[in-house]
């Protein structure tokens, strides 16, 4: 069997998605030995953009059947790399919520570039104030974009990071000649085993500054729903998948609310809007919710979801 060539890149990201690829484990080893040939993956292999000795004039990435890109697009360098990946790869996979929906980095879309630079180089409590750098810094784009806002994406694998089950499933599907591979369009609540009582009149909205009610000696399916206990759990508007194909949601398993890292339940959904209805359904007053935009859309700020407020 001819090996399938794979190119992988990371843009506005943290390398957690690349670690998730390695966490596929034995399946990955079998795939690498028998079926896959990674021709480009900078986080692991030494591959220069302009030739190994800088002899080339233009950025170049090897041609590959499958391209995997993690991270969103925030500056001109990210954009250039993404366009080259799309040009050189037959199938492009958006890996991780930063790539599919902007992720945490897209929260910057609520602020101007000047506010970003001022905080980073002058106002941050952990930074000694300094002048703005002017050399070797790629120009910023006007906002942080998800991949499909700039190029065609063939397959989406959200998560922060994606569970190895879905990565292995996608690669295996591609090796079998299946170009369609979709995450289930279900919410975290659909996979959550906690007890729902649907009591009305819960007036307070709480962050995790106090412990929820549960018995650590009893299984998860004997704990009452964290949202019904008054905690900001984003399970109703977050896509399922963090527990893999069979496991319970990871945050819920740790007795803490879902933080929304798998992004919207389906393409085009708006957690920021949908969660208001979820709160009302269990008796909360949405007007009492602190930091609606930053909390509810902290993993899905691309696609125009988070914008800078209009100054009047």
UniProtKB/TrEMBL annotation:
<dbReference type="InterPro" id="IPR006137">
    <property type="entry name" value="NADH_UbQ_OxRdtase-like_20kDa"/>
</dbReference>
<dbReference type="GO" id="GO:0042597">
    <property type="term" value="C:periplasmic space"/>
</dbReference>
<dbReference type="InterPro" id="IPR051349">
    <property type="entry name" value="Hydrogenase_assoc-protein"/>
</dbReference>
<keyword id="KW-0560">Oxidoreductase</keyword>
<dbReference type="InterPro" id="IPR037024">
    <property type="entry name" value="NiFe_Hase_small_N_sf"/>
</dbReference>
<protein>
    <submittedName>
        <fullName>NADH ubiquinone oxidoreductase 20 kDa subunit</fullName>
    </submittedName>
</protein>
<dbReference type="GO" id="GO:0051536">
    <property type="term" value="F:iron-sulfur cluster binding"/>
</dbReference>
<dbReference type="GO" id="GO:0016491">
    <property type="term" value="F:oxidoreductase activity"/>
</dbReference>
<dbReference type="Pfam" id="PF01058">
    <property type="entry name" value="Oxidored_q6"/>
</dbReference>
<keyword id="KW-0830">Ubiquinone</keyword>
<keyword id="KW-0574">Periplasm</keyword>
<feature type="domain" description="NADH:ubiquinone oxidoreductase-like 20kDa subunit">
    <location>
        <begin position="14"/>
        <end position="174"/>
    </location>
</feature>
């Amino acid at each position: 069997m001819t090996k399938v060539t794979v190119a992988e890149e990371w843009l506005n990201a943290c390398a957690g998605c690349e670690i998730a690829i390695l966490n596929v484990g034995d399946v990955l080893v079998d795939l690498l030995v028998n079926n896959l040939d990674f021709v480009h993956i900078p986080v692991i292999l030494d591959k220069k953009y302009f030739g190994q000795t800088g002899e080339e004039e233009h950025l170049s990435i090897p041609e590959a059947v499958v391209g995997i890109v993690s991270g969103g697009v925030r500056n001109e360098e990210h954009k250039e790399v993404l366009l080259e990946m799309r040009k050189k790869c037959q199938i492009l996979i958006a890996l991780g919520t930063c790539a599919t929906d902007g992720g945490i980095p897209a929260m910057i879309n609520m602020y101007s570039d000047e506010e970003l630079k001022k905080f980073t180089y002058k106002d941050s409590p952990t930074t000694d104030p300094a002048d703005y750098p002017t050399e070797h810094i790629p120009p910023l784009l006007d906002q942080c974009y998800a991949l499909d806002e700039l190029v065609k994406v063939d397959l989406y694998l959200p998560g922060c990071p994606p569970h190895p089950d879905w990565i292995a499933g996608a690669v295996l599907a591609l090796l079998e000649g299946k170009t369609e591979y979709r995450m289930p369009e279900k919410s975290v609540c659909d996979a959550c085993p906690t007890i729902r009582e649907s009591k009305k009149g819960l007036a307070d909205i709480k962050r995790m500054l106090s412990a929820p009610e549960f018995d650590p000696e009893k299984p998860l399916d004997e704990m009452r729903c964290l949202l019904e206990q008054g905690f900001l759990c984003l399970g109703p508007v977050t896509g399922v998948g963090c527990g893999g194909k069979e496991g319970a949601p990871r945050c819920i398993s740790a007795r803490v609310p879902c933080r929304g890292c798998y992004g919207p339940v389906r393409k085009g959904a708006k957690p920021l809007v949908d969660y208001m209805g979820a709160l009302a359904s269990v008796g909360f007053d949405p007007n009492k919710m602190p930091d609606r935009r930053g909390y509810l859309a902290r993993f899905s700020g691309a696609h125009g979801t988070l914008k800078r407020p209009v100054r009047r």
